[in-house]
Specification:
The chain is 23% helix and 35% strand. The chain has two helices and seven strands, in the order αβββαββββ. 34% of the residues are buried.
Length: 145
């Protein structure tokens, strides 16, 4: 399977799984390329679902690159990436550290990572999960504490 076909299949599978697990409350959209960001980039303006991903989440965490936007609501972003769980986890470990977040709990393996952190009056939960040979699913939720 070509890389493009694998990425498309991963995006469709992630969108279907996201819709099944969201209880109908999330906004689902066709995947759109996410914009470029690094842990030290400036905050971007949130985009509407179905358009390019914001450079940062509502909790001011950067959006991992390369990634494809699957869905976005006011407090949740779901992405897919062809990168490994380890690469995405290292990116967010650095972003949390540089961004002044306090990690409350973390569980990491070769197949998934779950991190809960807080900064001021904002909490965030990151879930980074292997999506088969095609890549990784990234789910970031933010909420007031």
């Amino acid at each position: 399977m070509s890389r493009g076909a694998a990425l498309a299949a991963m995006a469709v599978l992630t969108a279907v799984l996201s819709a099944c697990g969201s209880g109908g409350g999330g906004t689902s959209a066709s995947p759109a390329p996410a914009s470029s960001a690094s842990p030290s980039s400036a905050p971007g303006t949130p985009a509407e679902s179905g358009s390019a991903a914001p450079s940062r989440t509502s909790g001011s965490l950067p959006v991992y690159q390369p990634s494809v936007l699957v869905s976005k609501t006011a407090n949740h972003v779901q992405l897919t990436s062809t990168s490994s769980v380890e690469q995405v986890t290292a990116f967010y470990d650095k972003a949390l550290s540089e961004g002044g977040w306090t990690v409350i709990s973390a569980s990491k393996s070769a197949f998934s990572t779950s991190i809960t952190a807080k900064r001021g009056t904002t909490g965030t939960t990151l879930s980074i999960t292997a999506a088969g040979p095609a890549g990784t699913t990234i789910s970031i939720s933010t909420y007031p504490l």
